[in-house]
């Protein structure tokens, strides 16, 4: 199994329209030119990438086995019914006010979520028993979706005098809450209101913002490399996991009529560029997976029109057409890592279809696999009447997905999909507490599975109730099989 998307958002967040608007304002009307020619592997003259890898010291802390990105394999499904095993609430959020709750992670022992300037953990298997709290000097402004094999992850927080400066990185242990290091990054303000993003690959934490990107050693917190934007070019997205891949955008003319993208594979320890894949003009690109490399393309449209698979030298393997709205791959600049609606295995990419209305207005969908070498479709998983499938992550060679009921009768179910056999098996069915959303309604819910449990976490909560007595708000819940 290879690394596909990080813990999944069922659909785009409510920031999608805002993110797309910013991107479209940057490339102006050029993006909408009717370009039918997709990506070309030919040579294009590009401005020199700012890369300080030559200045990296030769002796850096080597990555350990614990620095690998976690790729948990779940036990085989047994069926049954699920029940709440962990809950996390926000209390005291004023009506009409937003409380940022960035980052949701889980281990066998803890459910962890960001909450303003704090990282908060509750014990799994209890109603709402606190495990630990880690207070940071400023509000959390970015969170890695990845976790290491030994249970560490990273967040960025606002630690400078500039209230908008997302300029400090922290790595911490999910089970204990121990802060392992806390370091500044060379964040710089820009004229564009672009968020900072964090990703991780083996041994390295990578932060990217509009003006630059930096790699930090996982063990020591030492800066390994930095690369900044030029007058014409900057990193648009950095995708971690099994490897480190960047989408890189250049405006090669002052009137923005010549916008071009590259896909670059980087060496995580040095920031060196290993290979480059060039895009045609006016084609927007998002990284779906870093290994195998799969790229989502918007060519002359405001939606994903194609998926491209690249080989280990950055050469085009196959083009997979998305057929308009027939498939629903959604890439949001604010998401930072991966794209919703697509999940990648060693040799296939599985894509969610558009919803199809049934009788009484209830919707269903399906998940289709496409071969990364040929682009041809293969096994198909149908959600069934009044249900929709939402892929979460890989577990060995199988896909973990949530099957959501679209009426008031069909339950929610955590299922395993086996591409080798086309078989579906159920872990357990479950209902969500009132006020907890599955993610299918265009909200900011993040969903992940760990140690036989499914977890739902919000990245923001909105206060309600009376000013003198605000309602408690759900931040995150964990649901496991009731034995």
Short account of what is shown:
The protein is mainly β. The protein is built from one helix and 36 strands. The chain is globular, with a radius of gyration of 22 Å.
Please, could you describe this protein's structure?
The structure is a single chain. By secondary structure, the protein is an all-beta fold. It has a single domain (about 15-55, about 65-480), classed as Methylamine Dehydrogenase, Chain H. The protein is built from one helix and 36 strands. It has one helix at about 15-25; strands at about 80-90, 100, 105, 110-115, 120-125, 130-135, 140-145, 150-155, 170-175, 180-185, 195-200, 205-210, 210-215, 225-230, 235-240, 245-250, 260-265, 275-280, 285-290, 295-300, 305-310, 315-320, 340-345, 350, 355, 365, 365-370, 375-380, 385-395, 400-405, 410-420, 425-430, 445-450, 455-460, 460, 475-480. Strands 1-36-34-33 form a four-stranded antiparallel sheet, with no helix packed on it. A hairpin with an 8-residue loop joins strand 7 and strand 8. The protein is globular, with a radius of gyration of 22 Å. The protein starts with 15 loop residues before the first helix and ends with a strand.
């Amino acid at each position: 199994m290879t690394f596909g998307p990080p813990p999944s958002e069922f659909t785009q967040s409510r920031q999608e329209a805002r993110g797309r608007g910013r991107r479209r304002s940057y490339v102006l009307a050029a993006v909408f030119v009717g370009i039918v020619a997709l990506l070309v592997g030919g040579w294009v003259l590009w401005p020199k990438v700012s890369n300080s890898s030559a200045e990296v010291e030769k002796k850096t802390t080597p990555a350990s086995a614990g620095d690998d990105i976690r790729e948990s394999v779940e036990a085989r499904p047994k069926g049954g019914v699920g029940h709440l095993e962990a809950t996390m609430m926000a209390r005291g959020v004023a009506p009409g006010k937003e409380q940022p709750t960035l980052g949701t992670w889980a281990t066998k022992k803890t459910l962890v979520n960001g909450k303003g300037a704090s990282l908060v953990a509750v014990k799994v298997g209890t109603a709402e028993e606190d495990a630990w709290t880690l207070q940071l000097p400023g509000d959390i402004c970015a969170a890695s979706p990845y976790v290491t094999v030994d249970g560490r992850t990273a967040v960025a927080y606002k630690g400078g005098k500039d209230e908008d400066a997302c300029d400090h990185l922290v790595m911490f242990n999910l089970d204990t809450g121990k802060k392992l290091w806390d370091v500044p990054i060379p964040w710089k303000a820009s004229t564009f209101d672009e968020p900072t993003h964090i990703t991780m690959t083996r041994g390295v934490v990578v932060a990217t913002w509009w003006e630059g990107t930096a790699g930090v050693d996982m063990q020591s917190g030492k800066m390994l490399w930095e690369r900044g934007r030029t007058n014409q070019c900057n990193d648009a997205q950095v995708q971690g996991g099994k490897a480190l891949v960047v989408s890189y955008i250049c405006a090669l003319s002052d009137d923005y009529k010549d916008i071009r993208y590259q896909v670059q594979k980087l060496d995580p320890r040095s920031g060196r560029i290993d290979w480059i894949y060039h895009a045609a003009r006016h084609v927007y690109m998002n990284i779906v997976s870093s290994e195998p490399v799969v790229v989502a393309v918007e060519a002359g449209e405001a939606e994903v029109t194609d998926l491209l698979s690249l080989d280990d030298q950055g050469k085009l393997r196959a083009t997979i057409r998305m057929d308009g709205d027939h498939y629903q791959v959604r890439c949001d600049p604010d998401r930072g890592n991966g794209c919703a609606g697509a999940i990648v295995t060693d040799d296939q990419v599985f894509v969610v279809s558009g919803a199809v209305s049934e009788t009484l207005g209830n919707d269903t969908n399906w998940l289709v696999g496409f071969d990364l070498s040929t682009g041809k479709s293969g096994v198909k998983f149908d959600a069934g009447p009044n249900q929709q499938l939402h892929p979460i992550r890989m577990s060995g060679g199988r896909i973990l997905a949530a099957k959501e009921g679209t009426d008031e009768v069909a339950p929610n179910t955590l299922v395993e999909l086996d591409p080798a056999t086309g078989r579906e098996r159920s872990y357990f069915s479950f209902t969500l507490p009132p006020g907890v959303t599955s993610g299918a309604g265009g909200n900011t819910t993040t969903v992940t599975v760990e140690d036989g449990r499914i977890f739902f976490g919000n990245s923001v909560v909105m206060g309600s109730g009376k000013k003198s007595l605000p309602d408690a708000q759900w931040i995150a819940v964990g649901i496991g099989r009731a034995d």
